[in-house]
Structure prediction request, 391 residues.
Amino acid sequence: MRRVAVLGATGSIGGSTLDVIARHPEQFRASVLTANHRVEALVELCVRHRPDLAVVADPAHERELARRLADAGVHCEVASGPAALVAAASGELCDTVVAAIVGAAGLESTLAAAHAGKRLLLANKESIVMAGPLLLQAMARGGGALIPVDSEHNALFQCLPGGRPELARSGVRRLILTASGGPFRGRSRAELAHVTPDQACKHPNWVMGRKISVDSATLMNKGLEVIEAHHLFGAPIEAIDVVVHPQSLIHSMVEYVDGSVLAQLGNPDMRTAIAHALAWPERVESGVSPLDLAACAPLQFEAPDLATFRCLALAFQALRAGGDAPAVLSAANEVAVEAFLAGTLAFLSIADVVEAVLAELPAQAVVDIPTLLERDRAAREAARRVLRRAC
Ligand code: NAD
Ligand code: MG
Prediction:
């Protein structure tokens, strides 16, 4: 029986994870559930899954959570605040952690799970983008397994022998990340000048949280994923390619030196990657309908439009710059996306904000977590300054 902590249980990945867990009560149990501040949604999940511990990140909501759980007849521990998230991720109540908090807010709990040797199912890509080498070090020290949940990386993991091999020795030539192209694929810059948050969040193939939906629309999501792949698989930047594949049926591919290309296919439903990661190296049923290839539209592929979707080019630039540039990129992007979602920043200006912050804070070596968090704060402040100038 695996006891699973679902960090970010009220989110899109959290919901899909709990759906898979509920299908296999003899194999998995959701022993820890966490949310940011949506107490009502968290209580509902606790009623259904009966965890040992419920954590709300915002301490202002702890009493309300305890009261509502008691009213609902759920007897579990209750805690709140960032330290409680860290304790939950590293404590005795779980052996597996699904890191599904969005943004840099997920960094410390993800690292704590890694240090504690938990089996880490990583959805929170921002944490590996920010702190790649430190996270991998923590995993190595803790001795747990790291299994990617991001569909592209989960696909690569499935197409690589042993998941994370020495790429060169395995005869790998290239990792090919597929991108749907998002809701604005094929549009010109002029056509993107006035797009709204709701249009940006209407992804053609996936239903996701709003931050990652905007990232998919700008292609920053693919940029973050290139950096994620670089760290997860030890792949040099020249060995990572992006191809746009609008149907989102091929989730990514590995090209070998003999010309073989292995792909992982499936319907665009995160429960496949989640079920794979939960059960690995076994397989379990996920609830995803079988892929009907004959009924699929022809599969298309095209090169990404880096001139229109500048965020992808900026992510490559940050990865090339090295050090903490990816952390600066990701922090500036979080601030810009929030402003776009709040209606105070134009869609195309997200890239301008990120570019300005990267220029203001040249890459420094990543030393440790406190320095990294300090840079995260500096990048956010710089982004807010740029926003004030722009608005
Ligand atoms: P979401 O917005 O639907 O859910 C985010 C979760 O994080 C919620 O449970 C929320 O309560 C919690 N949270 C938010 N801010 C927090 C904070 N400050 N402290 C503690 N908890 C906080 O997001 P999502 O779409 O589920 O994405 C989660 C992560 O998974 C992101 O990093 C995203 O990039 C990654 N991911 C998502 C998908 C997808 O299909 N949704 C696919 C691949 C990767
Ligand atoms: Mg992805």
